[in-house]
Amino acid sequence: MDKLQTHATVLIVPGLREHVPQHWQTLLEAKLSKVRSVPPLEADKLSCAARVDAIQRELEQIDGPVILVAHSAGVLMVAHWAAVYSRPIKGALLAAPPDLQASWPEGYPTPESLRANGWDPLPTGRLPFPSIIAASSNDHLASLEAACHLAEGWGSQLVNLGAVGHLNPASGYGEWVRAEDFIRELDY
Question: Which carries the bigger pLDDT value, residue 11 or residue 20?
């Protein structure tokens, strides 16, 4: 298999479900020539601050330019990271950001538990790097309108992917080849 050659190192920031073998971000990681992934937390798994610190630890291991690729709650982690830390980032692909104001299905954290663990309020200022928010018209964790609101606040380009659910294996994603296209766009 030919690896996608990039100038920048891609840092993958998984969501709360972390690494899933058939998830598009796990499959993408295997295709990239320069890639790292934020490892799963062993403790404080719902702590936003612990997640942000994990991103920073990985970034400290990378020399040169970086592109962030985040999924779901990983998108929110990136926003919180950008509000605390400063490092040049070439760009970010922010896929399927959840809406902290929405009611999520059973099995997901409640708004109260997220607030108690530092996720809310979400940083609302412009991100200090170019970013693309890839959102779905039928995501069970966020409406397209909510994703549009995030894109406007963060100064991100919004890409409506159509009816692709939450871009996870349950939605049929597996392989998501458009992620590679967005990485190429950010790696100019």
Answer: 11
